[in-house]
Design goal:
CATH class of the largest domain: Mainly Alpha
CATH superfamily of the largest domain: RecF/RecN/SMC, N-terminal domain
Order of helices and strands: EEEHEEEEEHHHEHHEEHHEHEHEE
Distance between the termini: 25 Å
Strand content: 15-25%
Structural class: alpha/beta
Number of strands: 15
CATH topology of the largest domain: Glutathione S-transferase Yfyf (Class Pi), Chain A, domain 2
Strand order of the largest sheet: 2-1-4-5-6-7
CATH architecture of the largest domain: Up-down Bundle
Number of domains: 2
Helix content: 40-55%
Number of helices: 10
């Protein structure tokens, strides 16, 4: 999978940009606040219809414009796929092959990306919500069915939580509606849980040898999906659905008192164990960074395994956060494998030595110019 061309209009500080990218490593060099991360953000948005930096789409539109437009041509094994997003006050409009898409689940997956930014080093030691978001973003690109079930689960969860608040305040008394919402939650939640468990197991298989190599065979990494349901390799979706229905029924009085749903995949977590110890609580900073790096690299192989296409890799100023050894492992692992977009203030040291024939773009005030190696 390659992003061959991209066009931006009124996105962040890009009034109008048309750029062609190369299949290898595309290096975006510039001082701070010149637009290099904005361009990486645009690629991320073209893939996922969401920013990794803000939840407010209005911040993405150039200050004097009404709408922003992003276009890209993606080369896949099946041919070239034009993508387009327009965002503004009316919301988002997305197109694939020039045809409007009514659901994001039919758009997402046409361009897959793995983002590695300094904040991703907090994936291991951060809050559970970060790890749930990580699973949702990565697994949603792999499986349109996962994205569909997750969307319907979130809708049912919102409605159920709103109704629980009404029951708590005695604005509502009808528990039949609550039972209906609970059934919907269990239906979609069991599907979400099953896919998460399966793909976490596959992610572990890819991450383990990477982690062993980076740690020089001294450490073994394990990934554990921590669910409110009893789940193993033999679990069926119907069994998970029945379990979740039972838990919702058992906890109903507590949930009314709390005004929120207390069980389900919205409460689940992903644990990283190094030599059987939870690295979040007992690992050194070096172990946490090695784990995050191994998991990010494993995402690339997992996506290729599940979709038949390698994703794009977006490295947002992450080299400055890694020591030389980890930089070496990262750059060696991706060389000649995936199309990569790397932002930095300068290309030097290990990166300069290891990246073969990079295409370098100098960015200044939202303008790009190609730099000779």
């Amino acid at each position: 999978m390659l992003l061959k061309e991209m066009e931006l209009r009124h996105f962040r500080n890009y009034d109008h940009l048309e750029v062609t990218f190369t299949p290898g490593v595309n290096v975006l060099i510039g001082e701070n606040a010149q637009g290099k991360t904005n361009l990486l953000e645009a690629i991320h948005y073209l893939a996922l219809v969401r920013s990794h930096r803000t939840n407010k789409d209005k911040e993405l539109v150039e200050w004097h414009a009404q709408n922003a437009i992003l276009k890209g041509k993606v080369e896949r094994q099946t041919g070239t796929v034009p993508l387009e997003i327009q965002l503004g006050k009316e919301g988002k409009q997305v197109k694939v092959n020039h045809l409007p898409q009514s659901r994001l689940s039919t758009y997402i997956g046409n361009l897959n990306v793995v983002l590695f930014a300094p904040e991703d080093l907090a994936l291991v030691k951060g809050a559970p919500a970060l790890r749930r978001q990580f699973m949702n973003v990565e697994f949603g690109q792999i499986s349109s069915r996962y994205l569909y079930n997750l969307s319907h689960f979130n809708d049912a969860l919102y409605q159920r939580n709103q109704y629980l608040k009404q029951l708590r305040s005695r604005q509502a008394t009808d528990r039949i509606l609550l039972e209906v919402l609970s059934d919907q939650l269990a239906t979609f939640g069991s599907e979400v849980t099953a896919v998460r468990y399966r793909l976490v197991k596959r992610l572990e298989q890819w991450a383990q040898p990477l982690h062993e190599e980076i740690s020089q065979q001294k450490e073994k990494l394990q990934l554990k999906y921590v669910s409110s349901l009893m789940i193993d390799d033999q679990s069926e979706v119907a069994d998970l659905q029945e379990q979740l229905q039972t838990l919702l029924r058992i906890n109903i009085e507590k949930e009314i008192a709390a005004g929120t749903t207390l069980v389900g995949p919205q409460r689940d977590d992903l644990h990283f164990l190094v030599n059987d110890n939870n690295v979040q609580h007992f690992g050194s900073q070096g172990q946490q960074r090695t784990t995050a790096l191994a998991v990010k690299l494993a995402e690339i192989d997992l996506m290729q395994e599940q979709t038949g296409e390698y994703p794009l890799l977006l490295l947002d100023d992450v080299l400055s956060e890694l020591d030389n050894d980890r930089q070496t492992h990262l750059l060696t692992a991706i060389q000649d494998k995936v199309q990569t977009f790397l932002t930095t203030t300068s290309l030097s040291g290990v990166a300069r030595q290891l990246i073969k024939a990079p295409t370098i773009y100098q960015i200044h005030h939202g303008q790009l110019s190609t730099v000779a190696n």
